[in-house]
Amino acid sequence: MVAIHSTALGPAVGGCRFKPYGTLEEAVADVLRLSAAMTAKCAVAGLAFGGGKSVIAPEPGRVLSPEERRAVLLDHADLIAEFGGAYQAGPDVGTGPADMLVLREASPYAFCTPESAGGTGSSSGPTALGVLAALRAATGSADMSGRRVVISGYGSVGAHLAASLQAAGADVVVSDIDPAKRAAAESSGLTWIEPEKALTLTADVVIPAAVGGVLSPETVARLDTPLVVGPANNQLTDDAVADDLAARGIRWIPDYVASAGGILYTLSREAEGLDHDAALARVETIEDTVRALLGAAEAHATTPLLEAAALADRRLTSGAEPRTPSPRALRTTA
To answer: What is the chain's Cα-based Rg?
Structure first.
């Protein structure tokens, strides 16, 4: 399925997620929610792109052979091509640069192909760099000496963050639902904690770096940290949870702001033609964005989420007229 939430600022962009869901309704809800988050992410980041998302949902428990996976990706590329460039896909959960290269065989509307094929490759590094920029704005320093940081999710972005924060002097604790990652984490000098304890450990910073929906009224009540900032998409189970966080004195940096480094870097390179260093400089502007949002939230007695939403709305309403197809278009294929 492909969901286009907005094309008011330009073609919709968003990752292609390849994962099983319990029901079709769950998959539809996820692709719609994620596409809306991409609209906000691009608008706040100042990109001339809208928000979209695509999902490939195999049957739960079924393991696709390499040939089946390739066939499914090519079918998905045909679906993307039907939008004529109004939606352009990148990697997401369950997909990577090699999969984008397969999509390119049937559709030109995919980015983040491998560097060996002329693309920008994995966006994990720039995504982590953007989170670090957001963290600097929230803490006021790049020096993390003596601070405990808990990273929930030790995937590619989480591993980048752990290494960088460890180098900056932090006491880094990591968790992941995959126990096989424990050996690699501990061999790097990191402390391992079971996933169910990650959001309750006393820490200076908690970084959600895995799946979304981890911050609910129940989990927020158990948080023991003054700051939450991370790359996981859709961290809140509901926007009202941002108020719960604020009521407890916990500063939460909106996920679509902190996680924009990957899309900023990729589109700066592949759509605007900037070189590596110039694109990384664009990623670093996330620090200024977060600092401005925090200042506005303090001045207006609101939350960073409300200020980020207001900024996105201003940019969307001052942008161009929506382009074909209309926003919120959803198309699926079985």
So the answer is: 19
Q: What is the crossing angle of helices 261-270 and 276-284, to 10°? A: 150
Q: How many CB atoms lie within 10 A of CB 160?
A: 21
Residue 41 is a catalytic residue = no
pTM (2 d.p.): 0.90
Q: Residue 102 corresponds to which amino acid?
A: V
**C-alpha distance across the termini of the chain, in Å:** 8
Q: Which of 19, 41, 53, 181 is catalytic?
A: 53
Tokens of 260: 């924009």
pLDDT tens digit sequence for 229-284: 999 988 999 999 999 999 999 999 999 999 999 999 999 999 999 999 999 999 99
CA–CA separation, 6 and 316 (whole Å)? 9
Angle, helix 24-45 to helix 261-270, in steps of 10 degrees: 70
C-alpha–C-alpha distance, residues 175 and 201, integer Å: 11
Give every CB contact of residue 112 below 8 A, 6+ residues apart in sequence: 90, 91, 97, 100, 119, 120, 121, 122, 123, 266, 270
Check the CA dihedral 53-59-64-70 and report its sign: negative
Domains and CATH numbers, the chain: 126-257 (3.40.50.720)
